[in-house]
Design a protein that fits this description.
The protein has 11 helices and 15 strands. It has about 350 residues and is an alpha+beta fold. The chain folds into 2 domains: about 5-130 and about 300-310, Aminopeptidase; about 135-270, 3-Layer(aba) Sandwich (Aminopeptidase), CATH 3.40.630. The two termini are about 35 Å apart.
């Protein structure tokens, strides 16, 4: 085993094969996700690796965020629900030490790892979220039988109401989803991500058969949708959106059920439902209703100004929600296109 090296996954044609050989790897370790973050937001990759001649031994993927607004820092990884570092504890210790030296030389405010808190001994979690995973064991009847009764009724209601579904990978489908996302973000009181981000998702993920969009339509109008990624035998529910006026149709439930069936039919082992804020009990109930197993996702942040590990507030709820609920969508989109690169 040689020295720790810092690499750019987008410049390594064999990167995904190396990472997929690690059993604990996920989609978020992939070159496609690195390209999306680099090209949509201008982040600089600093992926710290430890390798032998034939395989990747350890990995701590980091993006440097250099912002005049929020400072220079390292995040593993921005806009990523859960990104466990790879390798044994000893191997991880070596790459983390190298990342720390790089961070000090670059003047980072902090280094945040979004997952892997067990590797940090008594370090406190900086932020905590719920995670939910669904095992795709058995046939469709078995999977549907494991769903809560209220969810089964919602799926049947959507079907009987005449809601139709489309599973797509086109840019047109991404645009249709993004229109719903803007409405959903306004309802939640946060700006939408810039469309450029979703354009890069289409370019590097969906068009490369690494994910898809599910859209629900009613009387020719798109009323709900979701974006999914996949890696190996694991699917990931990444983004969801809906038209609030069509909520009685329960199209969101039909969208999720369609994705579950798709992944089961294609031989996937599980579907990860992403992270959920501890304050969002409604979303937590929605995810638990599908028969998922709940776990905790814990982030760890080392702050060089404080000289140690620190805690951070989950910014999902606050005064800003009232402001963005009141703003028109075009203005909120403009603010999001400027703001997101600084707040990752």
């Amino acid at each position: 085993m040689g020295a720790v090296q810092m690499v750019d996954p987008a410049a390594d044609a064999g990167w995904d094969a190396k990472v997929q050989a690690c059993p604990a790897s996920s989609f978020f370790h992939s070159a496609a996700w690195a390209r999306v973050l680099q090209e949509a937001y201008g982040y600089a990759p600093a992926y710290f690796t430890l390798s032998t001649a034939d395989r990747l031994q350890a990995l701590l993927p980091v993006m440097e965020i250099n912002s005049w607004l929020t400072g220079r820092r390292g995040v593993s990884l921005p806009f990523t629900d859960d990104c466990e570092p790879l390798g044994s504890d000893v191997e991880f210790g070596r790459v983390y030490e190298a990342a720390g030296e790089y961070a000090k030389n670059r003047g980072w405010k902090y280094l945040e790892c979004r997952g892997g808190r067990a590797r940090f001994a008594d370090a406190p979690a900086s932020t905590v979220f719920y995670g939910h995973q669904l095992r795709l064991a058995g046939d469709e009847a078995t999977l549907f039988g494991n769903v809560d009764g209220a969810v089964r009724r919602a799926v049947r209601k959507a079907e009987k109401s005449g809601v139709s579904l489309e599973v797509a990978q086109s840019l047109e489908a991404v645009r249709a989803f993004y229109g719903l996302l803007c409405k959903t973000r306004k309802r939640h009181g946060v700006p939408p991500q810039p469309f450029k981000f979703f354009g890069k998702i289409h370019e590097h993920i969906l068009s490369q058969n690494r994910g898809f969009v599910v859209l629900a339509k009613y009387r020719q109008a798109t009323v709900a949708g979701a974006v999914y990624f996949h890696w190996g035998k694991r699917g990931i529910y990444k983004y969801g959106a809906s038209d609030e006026t069509a909520q009685p149709l329960r199209a969101n439930n039909l969208v999720m059920w369609e994705a579950i069936k798709w992944y089961a039919r294609h031989g996937f082992d599980e579907l990860h439902f992403g992270r959920t804020s501890l304050t969002n009990e409604g979303l937590r109930r929605f995810k638990l209703g599908w028969g998922t197993v709940e776990h905790m996702i814990e982030y760890v942040r080392y702050d060089w100004r404080a000289g140690g590990f620190v805690t951070a507030k989950d910014e999902a709820e606050g005064w800003h929600n009232r402001v963005f609920r009141a703003l028109p969508v075009p203005l909120s989109r403009l603010i999001g296109s400027v703001l997101y690169k600084h707040v990752a």
